[in-house]
Amino acid sequence: MALDLPVVLLTDPIQADEHARLARHARVVVAPDARADTLRGLIADADVLVVRSRLPEDIFDHQTRLKGVVRHGVGVDLIPMRQANALKIPVANMPGSNTASVVEYCVNAMFDLYRSMQALALRDASDWSDRRAQADRTLELHERTLGIVGVGTIGSALAKVALALGMKVIGLTRRPESLPAGVDPASKADLFAQADVVVLACPLTPETRGMVDATTLAAMKPDAVLINVSRGPVVDTAALLQALENGRLGGAALDVHDVQPIPEDLYPQALPRLLLTPHVAGITRSSMTRMSRGTVDEVLRLLRGERYANLVNPQIYEQAS
């Protein structure tokens, strides 16, 4: 009986309860790893593909009956969209599913770089005077300027929190008329020159790839901090590390990287103002539950013969009509 069910291939596991819900309607196959050859070998039997890891560019050359793809997350740069569009394979994502998690990560990173509680925490009674002296050197976010590159769903939500903290917020976006109340539009040059904190929340596109280069970093305030929750290649990593090593930048928090997982020699060990996390800004128990629930909803919708509710590439239907 199970062999007659449609096959749903997961590049990575999803939340257990939602896996069980999906398994009542499909044969669920979890890839043992996300290597290109593994995925190429498994996709031939898949009716639906659920994506949490980067797909090889030729993945769709190996499918035989794929009805659709669902991104367990928001960014679709893990999926070769040009090929999906050419083959008229519908793709869905989970917009807004990790907004709160990413915003909280950014706020946490701002506080950590400006006034780290770990650095101020007492280990024993002898730390009292040293920690108080250290606190005297910390800064407030209040009345500082936050520059957001990419004021979409996440950037807009972050702006609201920053405004509530008494920060001035400026934004770089292709549609300045869409900026939320209280956010002033800024050019790239003005944003990087004026901001005390720069948060990168933009998608990776040909225009944003490498946009934070040596010239851009040199224009920033020497005590400014950079937070990247977009994609690693938006930043010229070598230029950023050089700026930090030379004291020309106050600090950085990087959740995304040029190579993931990161190799041991990608970053130097002795940069105390560099915070590194393993692409977890959007991952909390809450957000993963939302993503898994929404993903299963979309898969079941597709298996019923319906269109996705969160269709990324509607043009495939327009081309077919």
TrEMBL record:
Pfam families, per the entry: 2-Hacid_dh, 2-Hacid_dh_C
GO molecular function: NAD binding; oxidoreductase activity, acting on the CH-OH group of donors, NAD or NADP as acceptor
Coiled coil: none
Keyword NAD in annotation: yes
Gene3D superfamilies registered for this protein in UniProt: NAD(P)-binding Rossmann-like Domain
Domain D-isomer specific 2-hydroxyacid dehydrogenase catalytic, residue spans: 8-313
Listed PROSITE patterns: D_2_HYDROXYACID_DH_3
Keywords on record: NAD, Oxidoreductase
InterPro entries named among the record's database cross-references: D-2-hydroxyacid_DH, D-isomer_2_OHA_DH_cat_dom, D-isomer_DH_CS, D-isomer_DH_NAD-bd, NAD(P)-bd_dom_sf
Tree of life domain: Bacteria
Domain D-isomer specific 2-hydroxyacid dehydrogenase NAD-binding intervals: 110-281
Similarity remark: Belongs to the D-isomer specific 2-hydroxyacid dehydrogenase family.
Name this polypeptide is given: Hydroxyacid dehydrogenase
Organism: Bordetella genomosp. 8
